Amino acid sequence: MRFLKGLLLGAGVVLGLSSAAMAAELKVGDDAPNFELKGSDGKTYKLSDFKGKQTVVVAWFPKAFTGGCTKECKSLKETGKALREFNVAYFTASCDTVEDNTKFAKDLDLDYPILSDPDRKTALDYGLVADKKSNAKRWTYVIGEDGKIKHIFGDKQVNTAEHGPQLVKALTELKVDKKKS
């Protein structure tokens, strides 16, 4: 599989396609690329640690301390009680440094971690950046316990002020298990 992916990426370079353009082809049903990212709470999170245990939501945003990103993070915080009723681990994520995201999370008094990907490796794997310098696109991935992508919100589908309720609706429609009491 790695050989095939490498071959396809190599072909993309020859044809003038970036690896981000190749990765942007992720769709519902695909295996989600694994990640290992540090959170604003000081912990490191690996997608593989949740496999077989919880659904994972990662809501990517372009830049900490900006209007839309602030609205989106606040919306998830305001909807936190409803999100935590599901057997789900949820995060926001950006290519900002851990220090910037930690400060941003504290300023907003968030009750969930923001993941940091300053080297943009994960953002590239998910097709969210064009290069090692750009900010991530605003996309959200719902990844099932089986490690497969269950739902994708593209940038035009994310309503920053209402993204928390959008996620609750999607988790309900996907029939994600509720937490056991």
Could you characterize what this model shows?
It contains seven helices and seven strands; from the N terminus they run H-H-E-E-E-H-H-E-H-E-H-E-E-H. The protein starts with a helix and ends in an 8-residue tail after the last helix. The protein is α/β, with parallel strands linked by helices. The N terminus is likely disordered. It has a seven-stranded mixed β-sheet with strand order 2-1-5-4-3-6-7, with helices on one face. The protein has a single domain, classed as Glutaredoxin (3-Layer(aba) Sandwich), CATH 3.40.30.
In terms of topology, how is this protein built?
Blueprint: H1 2-14, H2 19-23, E1 36-39, E2 44-46, E3 55-60, H3 67-78, H4 80-83, E4 88-94, H5 98-108, E5 114-116, H6 121-125, E6 140-143, E7 149-153, H7 163-173
In short:
The chain is α/β, with parallel strands linked by helices. 34% of the residues lie in helices and 18% in strands. The N and C termini lie far apart (40 Å).
